[in-house]
Amino acid sequence: MSAKSKNFYTILILGSLSALGPFSIDMYLPGFDAIAKDLHTTIPKVSLSLSGFFIGISAGQLLYGPLLDKFGRKKPLYFGLLIYILASLGCLAVTDINQLIVLRFVQAIGSCATAVASVAMVRDLFTIGESPKVFASLMLVIAVSPMLAPTAGGYLIAGLGWQYVFVFLAFMAVLMFLAAFFFLPESYVPDPAYSLKPAPILKSFRSVAIEPQFYTYALITSLAFSGLFAYVSASPMVFMNLYGISKTGYGWIFALLSVAFIGSSQVNSLILRWHNSKKIVTSALLAQAIFSLLFLLAATNHLLNIYSTVIFIALFLACLGLINPNAAALSLAPFSKNAGSASALLGALQMGLGALASVVVSFFPEKSTLAMPLIMTVASFLALFCLMAYQKRKSV
């Protein structure tokens, strides 16, 4: 096999590993109504299984970094995939919503291994010149996943039932395990001297967390991102339960809205030719706060319909596509030595606030449209406040 072909298959496997998390989040969304009926619960309660997944991802971000340095890349990856497969199969046998919530948390802990290991292996296997292109390929797979997963999930659930989503995800993980076992090289020599004691790990995280530029822009991107999680958690309830959209129709709406996020994030690279990241974040965050407030005012005055709801969500996601890459880059910019810890802490904060947003969604009635716009508005204005406070302190 030529070096070029080998690189292609390596990137394909790493991209598939990166896509497992997004598929796990989005593929079962069209089944919320069916899950609620089968488990004799409500759709807001079902959304807590999504919160459990977000919490698991948040915790897993901090867990696998040290394990990958201590034991190499492949052993923690195998461990995570096995956990994921067992938890996915366990979801087939649940009899109440609490069991599903717990298993989704465990499933997320397993899926984190694929995301963290794939990023680490790109750094190991490719040169500095090659890495940006490889990361771009991985990001494209991750970005396309929200377009494919709910649509595919909608047809799978409509044809066979929501349980088959977890059969598909388990099968997907088995294929990844086999591909990693046979075709991925061990890219990092395990370091027996690496300490897994809490004190040095916490010390490294603390040195990152006290940097003002980090915690300002990490909070900005995480708060803005929490609006995305509010949308993901509330959208099955709003579109299928309130507006009466079918499972397959919901999948297509979700795919369409993903284009707004993906498109703006791609346009961002063009805008960067004329404006720096700080200016883009400030402008996009201000626009996001205005759009969110208008969305909230429309919801409180009962002026929303399916079309206006889609437009407001698309505007919010388009702003997020500009805020997220720039704020994330600015938060990590001060670090060279602790870049891994900073990245893990940023991911944990994003998923932690996302989990909180999805929990808040569960407190709203099934027929309410308020959850999404309220969380989006509060999150956007809090992020704007963080930015203004940081800019004021810098100017003093």
UniProtKB/TrEMBL annotation:
InterPro entries: Efflux_drug-R_Bcr/CmlA, MFS, MFS_dom, MFS_trans_sf. One of its GO terms (biological process) is xenobiotic detoxification by transmembrane export across the plasma membrane. Belongs to the major facilitator superfamily. Bcr/CmlA family. Residues 10-394 form the Major facilitator superfamily (MFS) profile domain. It is found in: Cell membrane. Keywords: Cell membrane, Membrane, Transmembrane, Transmembrane helix, Transport. SUPFAM superfamilies: MFS general substrate transporter. The keyword Iron does not apply. It is a multi-pass membrane protein. GO terms for cellular component: plasma membrane. This is DHA1 family bicyclomycin/chloramphenicol resistance-like MFS transporter. The chain crosses the membrane at residues 7-25, 45-64, 76-95, 101-122, 134-158, 164-184, 214-232, 252-272, 284-304, 310-332, 344-364, 370-390. It comes from Pedobacter nutrimenti. PROSITE patterns: MFS. One of its GO terms (molecular function) is xenobiotic transmembrane transporter activity. Pfam families: MFS_1.
